[in-house]
Structures are given as structure tokens and as C-alpha cells.
């Protein structure tokens, strides 16, 4: 019997290393031809399966596939599209199985966050119930670092490094000019509900009084009076104050400080613009000259300053997913297990998808200082190894030499399906 | 007769390579002890001279001074402080000469932009008229690339590289998700009156239809209808549209699209926040989902992604300034002279300070495309070599290992002076 084919897709917000996971999946699958037949990637994630838009990996060059390791974003396209519950829209799940059946696909590798692991789990269930059992393995990915069980999520270490490096550099700038210019600088970073990314900014402070001086977490409602006092004290003591603010920061009323009112396909608010809100608050109440920056997509696309640890783990998760699948494991996701902090050592573990789905890991309260404006030593110990090492992409003409895929689709076999 | 002492100061907005110029000045001066005695740096720029706060370079280690080459910002402190005209405040100029005289300073090296070169020129004049002739040499610096005569300004190449790399990376992100998510992305960059930095974003577009698709220059008043049509056409053709917008962008009425109302010591408006204005315009008129980023200080502090060409030229300008001074040149500034585009070759020239002062070099109109939304081939040819090469700083614990100076002040000899 010919081996079953494999399907790989990227889901949700992309990262600077999700393609490194793709590289791990594809290179490992290509080297497992006794177990895996053809390999397809979904064009624009799970939509590629629903629409029967399957990218033929055999038409991509080995060089391009190797180049995925140093290329940010989702090379095959990703999507913000959450499948409804099985009871609400069984037709979608059945369509997936039909497409997989039509193309003799027996392996489903889904690279994403909590929502995506939920989808992978449901596909494994519905395949079973439809008499077309699939091997479904998740590949963890999220800059938010909010997946449970895994010590960290591929994608997080690199955004953490970007934020720590950026606030360190900006703080050098502010410090050198604070006598006659900007006294307060606010850097807004991502993180809707979990403050991991904001926390990573604290790594830039290697000595007491180093910037950043204040971290604003989504887990801690902003105590405006305490915050303003801390800013004022900091400017008086150091001449300047650098702040890292999470986009998900809430006021004492529990509302996001800045909510553009737009919601994405998952019903999440589209945030952005908390930095100017904080900066104006400082200006109005304390009168200090301010500047602010919003990193937005730059932070999660910044492959040029990726963490070598993160790249290595992202690749390893992709590789492990395929190894799990061909060894007969099903409905699982590989995870990073920390063995020791110093020296940093880790190994690959696994967790059932049923346990991962839709669980969000927030910052433990003991990772945030008592006053709510900084991280603890425990948190630093956790974060430090995740930004370690540099893994520079190759450059051409002064720019990173990132790869693009051909994305050649195979012929459709089924009628079209409305999504 | 003992050789005269030297004074070096940094002025205005700092860059990721102004310390590389400092490194060039200090290492060259330290190696010229037959001509130059002690070396002092102004604490917080020219204010250090007015306040008689002189940093003793002999107490800094050779390792720290070497480390300036890879450290962003102004290591001795910079300032936004413009000396008034000689007729308006002769006392300030006389104070400078008094301080220089008290500390036997015969060399004045001033590292800054157009305003600073004006100051250096005035100091050379007033010294002459007060019977204390000084050798005054400017060291060019400005991310805005708006100094005349020099082919480019140290500091610009690195911010150009940062912007080109950042928009390239963010565009990969947007492209991979545009089917179901963000369709329009706006990156706001610095540049009050000259669009050089925004233009540099265009280098990310190596092939037709590559992002960025639209550049908004401060030199071209925004034609809203033409802009919106271009965005819409771009989204329809490519699925997404990436825009680089200069903070100095003006509407058809000639007003800045976003003016916070704050003015700095030079009377310039403190800008910021044009990206959300543009993004909201797109949302309101076309309904596309958007994201925006504001790089602010991150772009001019990003030593981690500095252009090797820029670092080399910044160092060379500092070195040349000292060599000019000890060879008897006065009231001049070293400049970069381009010999050829391909291969890129350059040499050091010089220009009288009297000619540099207060002249702003804008983008030539033939560097901007006819429709005003992109650069021309001529412009790309000019910009390309300036971002070439990487010059990574050393790293420790996952972060760039930047240096800080001791900044030990020498004893004052004069009564204090109110600035």
C-alpha cells in the first residue's frame, strides 16, 4: 500500500519563525518517503483545505525549502479563520475530510496557537467518526507565549528579543538627550491578554535603574495615580523614564485603554494605540516631553534579530511533529520541556491536543513585581534563555535574502465549497 | 609649547552611529599627542562647554572608547540647544571662548547637523574676534540626510537600512495573511522636511509589485483622492498594500497631517502619529482592515541593524575631522564624496562651515516618481550602496553589548554661567 500523503498548514498571526517550523515539517517529511507520500501545504492555512487549494511541495526547490528557516511570516499564507463548533457547522469538518480523502491525505499538521490546536483536535475526532481516521499533529506557534504545557512557544523568543533589544536601544537614545529633550518614552508591544511580550522588555534592564523602568501588563489594571507617581519619581531620579506598554492594557474600569472597535474573525478586539494614550496621560498630568513608538507587525516579523534558541526550537517542533506522526502518535502536539535554567537545557515532550485546545496561559502573578510595574527575578530567570543567541539571515544588497514559494496548486477533484 | 587641548561634543538628535564618529575623533586624537594635549567631551553637547562640564576622556578605558564604534546614541550626552545669533546673545559665545581659554582648548570638534555646523562656524568667528583663535571642525551627522555638499550624512544609511528591512519584513507578514486579515499597513518614519528616510523604504521593493507600494513624502502634499485610488488599485491587484509615510507629510492645505502642537528648542514642531491618521483615512473611505506602526526612536537607535557603509563613513568623518585640524585646516567639515555607484566608491572631501550652515538638502524632484508616490531608478541608484553591509555589535546574554562612559568631569575653574 502506498503511503498516505501529508497536509501542512499555517494558522493565525504569523511569526518570524513559523516558517522555521514549516522547514522542520517539510524537510523531515521529505526524508520519510517510506511513510509519507506527497506533501501538500494549504494555501492560506485551513482555507486551502476547505477550498481544495493545495500547494504542491514537490515543485518547490530544496533551496527554497531550506530558506524557510530564515524567512519570517507564513510562506504558504496563513488565515484568521476559526472553524465553528462541530454542532454548529458540521459541513465544514466534513468538507475537510472529503478533501483529505480525495487527495489520499492521512497526515494533518497544523501550525498555530490555541484556536488552531482546537481545530486539529476536532479534525481528528470527525475523521474518526466519518470512518476516515487521520493522524493529526499540532505544531505550536504563537508570539503571545500563551499555550499551556509547553515551557515556551516558538515565535515568542524572537519577539521577546526584538522588544528587549529595541527598548534597550531607544533608552540609550532617550538617556543621551533627556537633559533638554524627551523625558518619557513609551514603547507599545503586542499581547492581548498575556503580558509575556511586555515582560520580555524588562530583560533590557541589566542593572538597577536601567531602562525600561516601568512595564504595563494586560494582567494588571492600570492604577493611574500609582503609575504617574512612578513616572515622576523615575524622571526625578534618572532624568528620564522608559515604559513598555502592552496593547492589552486595561484601565481600572476593565476596559482596554485603546480599543479601535474593530474585531477580527475570532471576535477579538483589534487593538493598537495604547502608547499615545499613555504618553498623553503623562504629558497632561506631569507635563514631561514624550515620544512613543508602536512596533505592531515589525516585532513579530523581525527575523533579522531572531533568537537562535527560538529558531532552533521552532525547527525542532516541526521535525518532532512529523516524527510523532510516523511513529503512530495521533492528536498530540510536541512541546518544549525545560530541563535546567543555567545552563539552559531543554527537550521535546508531547501533550494531547484535547488538553491544549482553548487554554490560555497567562503570566503567573509571582512573575510580576508586587507593585505591578515590573518583573521578578523568577521571571527574568525564565525569560533569559529564550532570547539567547543570534541567527542572522543571509543578506543581499543590504537586505535579508528571504525566500518566496512558487505556491503551485494541484488540480482540484471536488466541486467548489462556499466558505 | 605644550599642544592645545581638544573639545568634542555631540549635538541634536542622536543616531546609531554618532558614537562611531566619536570613536574616530577620540582614537585619532589620542594617537596625535604631539599636536593635541588633553581631550575633553562636552557633557550633553554644547551645554557641557557653557556649564564648564567637561568629561575627562583620559579616565575612559581604551576598550570603552573602542566600544563606541558599535554603541548607538550619544555616549557623552547630546542636547537640543541652539545658540542664538551673535548679536542676540553674544554672552553665550564669549562664555564658550572663556571656558575654552580656561582649559587651554584650541580644538573644537562639533558633531551634528546643520544647526550645529552653524554654531561651530560662529565659534570660529568669535574666537578670532576675541583674540583667542580656535581650530573649529564640524563632524557631519543627521539621520535626515539633509546636509548639503556631502553625498550622504552619517546616521542616514543605518536608519535607511532599518526602514527598508522593517517594511520588507512587515510586508511579508501582511502578504501572508491578507486573504482574511489586514489589507493595508502603514509604517511611519522620521523626516520632517526631507523625504530621504521614507524613500529608503522603497529599497525593500526589489521586484515589481513588491512592497512598499506607496511612499508618502514630506515634499509632496497629499492628494487624498489620488492616494486612496492608488491604495484601492493596489489591494485589488496584489491583495494588500504597504505604505511608508513620512512624519512630515502635509495635506493639500500645507498643514502637517499630524502635529502634536509641541515645539522643540529649535522651534520645530514635534510630530508623530501620521500613521494612524492615514490608516483611519483608508478605513473610512475604503473600509479595508488596517494596521500601523510608528518606529520613532527605534529607527535612529537601531545599531543592531546598522549599515556597515554608514558605520565606516561615520568613523572616517570623525577621524578626518581630527586629521584636518592637526594639519591646520579650520572652519571646515569633512564630507563624503561619491566616486562611483557600482562598484560603490567614495572618498573624503571637505567644505567650509560657512557654506554648510543652515542649508537643508531636500530630495531632488527627479528622485520622486511623476505621480509622487514612489522613488525613481535614479534615487534607488543613489540609495542602494548606503545600506550595504552589516556591522553587528557583540552580544551578551542575548542583547547587544553596548558601552557606557564613566563621564568623569574635570574640576571647574570659572564661576557658573546661567544657560
- How many separate helices of chain A? 13
Assign the structural class of chain A, choosing from mainly alpha, mainly beta, alpha/beta, alpha+beta, or little secondary structure.
alpha/beta
Largest sheet of chain A: 5 strands, mixed
Query: Strand content of the residues of chain A, in percent?
Result: 15-25%
Helix content range of chain A: 25-40%
Largest interface: A-B, 75 and 75 residues
By oligomeric state, this entry counts as homodimer
DSSP summary, beta strand count of chain A:
15
Distance between the termini of chain A: 34 Å
SSE sequence of chain A, one letter per element = EHEHEHHEHEHEHEHEEEHEHHEEHHEE
Shape of chain A: elongated
Indicate the CATH class of the largest domain in chain A.
Alpha Beta
Question: If you average the pLDDT of chain A, what whole number results?
Answer: 94
**CATH architecture level-2 label of the largest domain in chain A:** 3-Layer(aba) Sandwich
Domain module tally of chain A: 2
CATH topology of the largest domain in chain A: Rossmann fold
Query: Strand order, biggest sheet of chain A?
Result: 3-2-1-4-5
Poorly predicted runs of chain A: 260-265
Radius of gyration of chain A: 22 Å
